[in-house]
Design brief:
Mean pLDDT: 88
Number of strands: 3
Strand order of the largest sheet: 2-1-3
Radius of gyration: 14 Å
Strand content: 15-25%
Largest sheet: 3 strands, antiparallel
Distance between the termini: 16 Å
Structural class: alpha+beta
Amino acid sequence: MTYPAEVKIITLYTPIKDQQGNELTCLSMREPKVFDRLKFSYLTCSEDEKDLIMISDLCGQEADVLKGLTIADYKQLEDQFVVFMVPPQKRAALLKKMGYQKEKSSGQ
């Protein structure tokens, strides 16, 4: 599967450990596609759990890793997911409205 080139780097307020025990101070989240939403729509867990599983997949991490995040850090990931739902030309304005000063990105 080919993934979108847009990736956002989210700096964590509180570092966590990945499954190998490495400290993570930031997470990369790729822009989702319709495929991602469909892939997780068939799960029989709660909507919150589906969101966690999808966000962890977009960040290239296991859901158990993201369960170790503080609420403030998880909110950053949820906010970035929301930003990905609007057209690219409107994202900077939405981030500003949400209280984020500057977005970090890496493209291919």
